[in-house]
Amino acid sequence: MVQFDPDRLKAIADVFATEHGMMNLCGDEVPVRLTLFMAELGASTTPSELVSSLMAANDAKIEELRVTKKEYVCTPEMFESREANSMAAQEEWNVMRGAE
User: Fold this and answer.
1) Nearest CA-CA partner of 66 in 17, 32, 31, 16
2) What is the pLDDT of residue 64?
3) d(CA 23, CA 28)
4) Does residue 99 have a pLDDT over 80?
5) CB-based contacts of 95: which residues, under 8 Å, 6+ apart?
6) 57-98 tens-digit pLDDT
7) Is 18 exposed, middle or buried (0-12, 13-18, 19+ CB in 10 A)?
8) Mean pLDDT of 38-51
């Protein structure tokens, strides 16, 4: 049984929720990373309370971005950093769950 570090899971979820919210705000196609991550987490041995708290934090992050001014978020620099952060978080998640 794999035990995931809750702080690392929160950090990964935050990156994916930021990506999700940013892509919603900027009118781009929303990647499925957050959805897949939460589905995999829900199917794992991770306590349901932790999964629920991550879902609530994800929703809050997405809502926070939804009401942000586009000119602050939808910039080339933000897209570059979002992509780099998301790729690093995906890599970390893959390692944590033994997919790589």
Assistant:
1) 17
2) 95
3) 5
4) no
5) none
6) 999 999 999 999 999 999 999 989 999 999 999 999 999 988
7) buried
8) 92
**Angle, vertex CA 64, rays to CA 89 and CA 34, nearest 5:** 30
Contact 33, 93 (CB under 8 A): no
* The token pair that represents 8 in the structure block: 């690392």
- Structure tokens belonging to residue 85: 């952060």
CB 15 within 8 A of CB 75: no
Token pair belonging to 4: 């995931």
CA distances from 54 to 23, 25, 34, 35, 97 (A): 19, 21, 11, 12, 17
Over residues 1-24, the pLDDT tens digits come to 457 899 999 999 999 999 999 999
Q: What angle do CA 88, 89, 92 make, to 5 degrees?
A: 90
